[in-house]
Amino acid sequence: MVDEQAVQELIHEIITEDEEEEAVPVLKCLMEGTVTDEEISEKTQLKLNIVRRVLYKLYDAGVASYRRSKDPETQWYTYTWKFEPGKVTEMIKKKHSEIVEKLREALAFEENNMFFVCVNGHYRFTFDEAAEENFTCPECGSEMEFMDNSEIIQQIKHELSLYENNGFDGGPDPGMNS
């Protein structure tokens, strides 16, 4: 099964903040097994239309699927919903890869550039950008000074190592501590 915290972090991205309180119990019902929207509504004490809205958002994101069946007596359709842990795992892996790639790009940028800053804290420029401004802040006219970015580099390296060493490989920690 997928790590519950990782699922909840993914839900933060799928569901709007005002719906999150309703989405968590719906998702827990789904994770317990295949159920109908009416059963989820009864179990969670949420209105059926709220349960359906959450389920369709989960469906649109690919973390839930449904099967429709027709009752031969009433001719009404019943929707049986199922949690899709494989899709969740795939989405978490993709997000993890994107974060690692962005960290690597940021690290390369920091390591391959020399930086200058306005002494009044307005801007940070690469060497080339600072040279175009004649090493003078365009906002206040103050002289720019060299900035040692070794702490930034160390922080990025640290964060990158956390993602790479505790990365999501189907294991318990997706490493989403940004």
Automatic annotation (TrEMBL):
Note the SUPFAM superfamilies from the entry: Winged helix' DNA-binding domain
Q: Does the keyword Plastid apply?
A: no
One MF annotation (Gene Ontology) recorded for this entry: DNA binding
Q: Which residues form the HTH TFE/IIEalpha-type domain?
A: 3-89
List the GO biological process terms: regulation of DNA-templated transcription; transcription initiation at RNA polymerase II promoter
Q: Which InterPro entries match?
A: TF_E_archaea, TFE, TFIIE/TFIIEa_HTH, TFIIE_asu, TFIIEa/SarR/Rpc3_HTH_dom, WH-like_DNA-bd_sf, WH_DNA-bd_sf
Give the family this protein belongs to, as stated in its UniProt record. Belongs to the TFE family.
Q: What is known of its domains?
A: The winged helix domain is involved in binding to DNA in the preinitiation complex.
| Its biological purpose | Transcription factor that plays a role in the activation of archaeal genes transcribed by RNA polymerase. Facilitates transcription initiation by enhancing TATA-box recognition by TATA-box-binding protein (Tbp), and transcription factor B (Tfb) and RNA polymerase recruitment. Not absolutely required for transcription in vitro, but particularly important in cases where Tbp or Tfb function is not optimal. It dynamically alters the nucleic acid-binding properties of RNA polymerases by stabilizing the initiation complex and destabilizing elongation complexes.
What is the official name of this protein in its record?
A: Transcription factor E
Which organism does this sequence originate in?
Methanothermobacter wolfeii (Methanobacterium wolfei)
